[in-house]
Specification:
CATH class of the largest domain: Alpha Beta
Mean pLDDT: 93
Low-confidence stretches: 426-447
Number of strands: 18
Helix content: 25-40%
Radius of gyration: 21 Å
Number of helices: 19
CATH superfamily of the largest domain: LarA, N-terminal domain
Length: 447
């Protein structure tokens, strides 16, 4: 168990030159490797600096870096243009396309008794630890798992073993983990490193990934005062310690506590990054704990053209819509197709306001009928953007024609919350015997 790099702080700004030096210094500590697999994110994590890091790793290993397997999860495979944009200079022929429905190996199962415990008795299935077959069957002597630690709706804080067990995981593992998080309660998970979903993945890591030579390269990004992003932390290691270090910094850097609940929020979704509500609903996930009751959330989504990245998921979103937890759980009980696609069911729960606030979606390429059919209000994008021009708005509070609004230019970069709602969720955890600081022994083994 080793941490090879531990650099980070609230005011740290790791330059590209320094980043390259830290990557090389860390890789040299690993010793000679002959067959390396890189597992970085796709274009939806373009801000993570993973493209740059993967490029440095390729320059270091050259012919020994045999493949790059982007951790797509359920996302659409990267196009050659997207690969060239994010991973410029790395030969296209090195890139593999993960398919969560095929080429999957099941390494073992987390027993149903553990899922019952973690879900507080709500779920009774086991959880399969599934990975892309390249991880286990092709003789790699080093797997570099690369990505950003940031608050996340399914697993509290993104990355670490999620990049492997979900990012290049299989259908059942993805479905069941997402549904566990949704049923347990997204607002009880967001921004917390230790939670039921993470505990399940830690259990699987300790038992089923321990013989795979995985090294995690984790970044933490934060906003600069004058705009743009700074690399605040870089953590490299082969066990949970590097994740704990990164998550601790991310909580300080990426969670923004709001002085009073927001009455109106406007969130912009970059069209190069967000093409679906499956991805774009980060606008809802990451702001919901900051919104006042009966607040309005306006989502400016010029690139959104579909609901699900996956055709089957898109169809289910259109069929059931974002009508809240009780309606979704009832649909799961009555529809075998939805019960067979629990990540879609989880997404339907995550994307609902649960009737607490109003969501106005302004898509570039979905119709009023389509938006309203899934439970959102429709906004005409050109008209709304004339009133709330993202180019003119600054992050945080703005006055627009005498009205106060809170603007967020990229919801994927953080979590916004009012202290009362954050504390409320902590109190709920304490009432069920799950203290916030708990780190189970299951989460301390090497993976």
């Amino acid at each position: 168990m080793s941490v090879y790099c531990d650099v980070g702080g609230l005011e740290t700004n790791i330059t590209s030159l320094r980043l390259a030096e830290l990557i090389v210094e860390s890789l040299e500590k690993l010793g000679r490797r002959k067959k390396v697999l890189a597992v970085p994110p796709d274009l939806t994590r373009v801000h993570s600096r993973a493209g740059e890091i993967t490029r440095y790793a390729w320059h270091y290993y050259r012919d020994s870096l045999k493949a790059v397997l982007p951790a797509l999860g359920t996302h659409t495979a990267m196009s050659p243009d997207q690969i060239s944009q994010m991973y410029s200079g790395i030969p296209l022929e090195l890139f593999l396309a993960h398919n969560w429905r095929s080429g999957i190996e099941t390494l073992g199962e987390v027993p149903s008794e553990y899922i019952v415990e973690q879900s507080e008795g709500k779920l009774h299935y086991s959880w399969p630890a599934q990975v892309n077959e390249h991880l286990t069957r092709f003789g790699f002597d080093l797997v570099l798992s690369i990505g950003q630690v940031v608050p996340h709706e399914v697993i509290g804080m993104a990355n670490y073993n999620k990049n492997i067990l979900i990012g290049i995981g299989g259908r059942e593992g993805i479905n069941r983990s997402h549904y566990l998080g949704a049923v347990y309660g997204m607002e009880r998970i967001l921004g917390r490193p230790i939670n039921p979903v993470r505990q399940v993945l830690n259990y699987a890591s300790d038992r089923f990934l321990c013989d795979i030579p995985i090294v995690y390269i984790l970044t933490v990004l934060g906003r600069k005062q004058n705009g743009g992003l700074a690399l605040r932390g870089l953590y490299i290691g082969d066990d949970i310690e590097c994740f704990q270090l990164a998550a601790d910094l991310s909580q300080k850097v990426n969670i923004e506590m709001i002085e009073s609940p927001i009455r109106k929020a406007v969130v912009y979704l970059d069209p190069h990054e967000f093409h679906s509500t499956w991805l774009g609903n980060k606008a809802i996930y990451r702001t919901r704990m900051a919104l006042a009751d009966d607040a309005e959330l306006i989502v400016l989504a010029p690139g959104v053209r579909e609901f699900g990245e996956d055709k089957a998921v898109d169809r289910l979103i259109r069929r059931y819509g974002y009508w809240g937890t009780p309606a979704t759980m009832l649909a799961v009980e009555s529809d075998p197709e939805l019960a067979n696609n629990l990540s879609a069911a989880a997404h339907l729960i995550h994307g609902s306001s649960e009737d607490r606030f109003r969501i106005t979606y302004c898509p570039g390429r979905l119709s009023r009928e389509e938006i309203e059919s899934v439970g959102y209000r429709y906004g005409e994008l050109p008209k709304i953007m004339r009133g709330y021009d993202p180019v003119k708005l600054s992050h945080g509070y703005n006055k627009v024609d005498g009205e106060e609004i809170f603007f967020i230019g990229n919801p994927g970069l953080g979590l916004w919350a009012h202290q009362s709602r954050f504390d409320e969720r902590i109190d709920q955890d304490k009432s069920t015997g799950r203290p916030e600081s708990q780190v189970a022994a299951d989460g301390r083994g090497r993976s």
